Amino acid sequence: MAATMCSASDMRTGGEMATCAAMCSNTAMLADTGMRMMMRPMGMDAEAMRTMLAACVAMGTACAAECRQHADMDESCRYCAMACDEMVAKCRAMMDAMPA
Questions:
Q1: Among 20, 31, 88, 99, which is 20 to 30 Å from 51 by CA?
Q2: pTM of the shown model
Q3: What's the domain count of the chain?
């Protein structure tokens, strides 16, 4: 949700925040897809889930870094960076808990 809100805020500011807006939109979409996959445990393939979690970690890390560049002037970027950090930590914890 924080990434979606940040993206919407970035789009209102114009072209200088286009990269951040796109990064936040992509992060939100990827996280939503990952969540939907987890809600279907009967059809979950462990390797596919690990790959999705790794993608969420990569995208969340990149989005947090992008948002941190603007965090001092945009509150939604600050919240988004914190939310991305939390998502990354939770995805890593899930990956660590999954059987090999």
A1: 20
A2: 0.91
A3: 1
